[in-house]
Structures
1.
Amino acid sequence: MTNVDLSAASTAAGGSPSLHGYLAVPEGRGPFPGVVMIHEAFGLDDQTRRHADRLARAGYLTLAVDLYSEGGARRCLVATMRAMAARTGRPFTDIATARRWLAESEMGNGRTGVIGFCMGGGFALLVARDGFDAAAVNYGRLPGKEQQDLDDALRGACPIVANYGGADKSLKGAAARLETTLDKLGIEHTVKEFPGAGHSFLNDEEQGPVLLRPLMRVMGVGPHPESAPEAWQRIEDHFARYLKD
């Protein structure tokens, strides 16, 4: 497990001049399928690194890209969210840089997937048609307010696995709406809403400022160990089908 400097490639492409990420490498001999991981709104933290390590243990060369490389969450969160809403900008260049790095790595088998959580899940949806072979979306916000926005954003996407929480008050109806859209567009997919789970239910510990955690619990945010194992298995099965030889 190591930090990776992506700044040269990112700068050349017009992305973040200081772009970096966390690389989790599977044991054994490669080549391995590659996965770009996109963090929650809190940034590339220890929770994200544990997610990356978990995928590496499952056999995936996992690069958790830091979309806040230019100054952390306080300086970068608003601009990153605006770029996601506009569906263009530096974060998309940074994600594409990370994908190319994995695709060209001697450790990789040339196939790449993308996985995102929370904010990262929203980005994973939006880049699912940008050269990836498979995507895993976890409680990601759907793009746009109108159905046409969602149709346009997902048309031509790679196969998608999506996990949502039924107790997630911020994304009510998102799973059903996503599944209906993917059905209509003819995109291979599997979408599941876990009844007892809320937002960020794949995490193994509570996130965010300590003072806000009671409010986050009320909003249905936090780990749900009863649902997380099945959701992870769905992710691993999806990636195995589309990324492994």
2.
Amino acid sequence: MTDAAVRVDAWLWAVRVYKTRSAATTACRAGHVRVNGERAKAAQQVRVGDELRVRIHGFDRVLVVKQPISKRVGAAVAVEAVEDRTPPPPPREFAGVIAIRDRGAGRPTKRERREIDRLRGRDEDLHR
């Protein structure tokens, strides 16, 4: 089923990025989905050529819409509907150090939370 434009949550579900449409909707509400650099609401329309950045498990996937589909399709058809431009993950040697707190050290202070977020790459949205 091809339309000129489809909802972003329906498209993400149709191309098997999320297991359920409600999971895709929740990700949009949480701000984990960006269409052409802007935060996307679940009902936002996507068209051929739109670039989506989807944060899954702490990593961004860069996807380009090649075919707007709104119904869940087989894996072979889903691959044809999306172009994955996600850069390969860095080698393990270059991966950042994971912040680990000592057991029983209590809750992190505000400064420590900011440092942890900076290490995990989550500070980009805080200052916009």
3.
Amino acid sequence: MQVGAQVRVKESVLFHHHPEHRNQPFDIKGMEGELIQIIQDWQGREVSANYPYLVKFTKKFRAHLGEHEIEAV
């Protein structure tokens, strides 16, 4: 997957920071968004992030996800 790709959440993932469902568990399974960043380094040093894919779903909601949780659309 590359930055700019459209992706879909293929597994059940609960978030408590969704802006429309604040402090309540919200399952994002099936939601689609745009891959906006793949985190590979921090301040010039290589990192092995557990959830390296930053996906933008709406203007206010972004989430870090793992490769096993998303699929290309």
